[in-house]
Amino acid sequence: METRKAKMKVPQFIDRCGYTKEEREVSNKLFDCYSAFLDLDREHPEEMKEFGYAIHLIQDVIGTRVLRRVYPKGYPTYKIKGGIKMEDVKAGKERQISSSIAMLIGVEKE
After folding, report:
1. Burial category of 63 from C-beta neighbours within 10 Å (exposed 0-12, middle 13-18, buried 19 and up)
2. How many domains does the chain have?
3. Assigned domain for 3 exists
4. Per DSSP, which regions of the chain are E strands?
5. Looking at the structure, do residues 16 and 46 belong to the same domain, yes or no?
6. Does residue 85 share a domain with residue 70?
7. What is the pLDDT of residues 1-37, one digit of tens each?
8. Are residues 20 and 41 part of one domain?
9. CB 18 within 8 A of CB 66
10. Which residues contact residue 18 at a Cβ distance below 8 angstroms, ignoring those fewer than 6 apart?
């Protein structure tokens, strides 16, 4: 089987999986989160399956960011300035979070 070369030039800041340094950091923290969850006692027979499903959803979001860079015509990107800062969320200034996350961090969501 013949190996093909990439058609696009890969910027220096992107690793071999296509992640930026920041995306790799999120991915690593996700792994740490999963490892820590494994140490908890099980309280429900379905929680491992549900936790694994949630991890996969987050991995899909990170992977889609790579797709947007590689195939910008098929996966459009919308430039949105800045991320969400935790202090803004806790102060009630940022509302672009899910109700379940708001509940976890103790913020009332309208």
Report:
1. middle
2. 2
3. no
4. none
5. yes
6. no
7. 555 554 555 555 678 788 888 899 999 999 999 999 9
8. yes
9. yes
10. 10, 66, 69, 70
Residue count (the chain): 110
Exposed, middle or buried by CB within 10 Å (0-12, 13-18, 19+), for 49?
Answer: exposed
Question: 34 and 21, same structural domain?
Answer: yes
Q: State pTM to two decimals.
A: 0.64
Angle between helices 47-70 and 21-38 (to 10 degrees): 170
- 101 with 48, same domain: the answer is no
Domain range enclosing 87: 80-110
Tens-place pLDDT, residues 49-76: 999 999 999 999 999 998 988 888 888 8
Alpha-helix runs per DSSP H in 12-46: 21-38
Structure tokens at 19: 């992640």
